[in-house]
Amino acid sequence: MSGLTLKGPYWVAARQHRRALWAVPAVVAAGLVAVVALRIWAGAADTGGAGAAWTNDGHLLLRICMEQAGRGLLFLPLLVGAFVAGPMTARELESGTWRLALTQSTTPKAWLGSKVLVAATVSLLGSAALVAVYRIGWARVSGTYRFHWADHGTYEATGPVLVAYCLLGVALGVLVGQLVRRTLAAMALTGMLTGLVMLVLGALRWSILPVETGTVPLSGHASQVMPSSALIMDTGLVTSIGERLPDYACFERTQNRVICPPDLDVIGRYADFHPVSHYWPTQLIESSLVLALAGVALFAALRLVGARRA
Q: What is the pTM of this model?
């Protein structure tokens, strides 16, 4: 990690930020030890009969730690972007020390490329390792409250989309760092932009693939037409011509959920949902979109630094 096998500007970039780079495997190792220990402790709940898992201290602590870890990993791309934008890029431009690299037969693109390569490699390996560690713990609590495969936090922390967002943070970091050239301002702006992209794509995530729809008679329940693991998107009433009405349309007039006025022409209930089989296609499509944005940002950053003069 100290860059002993690297050459030129790559060695310099790794050497300059070796403490931060060494922190990544340290965090991964600590997380792995904690998760494995908690899983072993929580394993005692399996011998305690029905409901024992919810009263087992190890299981409860594992749930708490996994919930906090899922939330924390949501901020990882923001931290990556902020670090790349500030200490790795804007600080050198702000202080003028980047000119020293250019006196060592290094071009501006090579200077920036070294930072991108080091940051992207560590971000890629580190975030992938953290996803693997999270999945080890999540496997023990998956499917329970707040740990559904589509829950915010769990979804990001269990798949390649987190890695893609971290790489986006790197690309935005080197671009914003050059444009702003002020360490703190570049860190704040990159964090906000990365978070904004995550919020926007997160809001559109379940519109990527079409939902599946099931119907049941009026006396039935929407949950009867979808797997228990599905992500429900919408439910309501359906008429004989396919028109959709809200769930309460009959109840507000008859005060009975299974009796509808004839004029509404309701024949049953519907449910729109995403089955668990949509998890990986959604992950891969979203990751591709994020990587495409990262590629655009990186291209702009390289064009910008190519036009820069010492």
A: 0.90
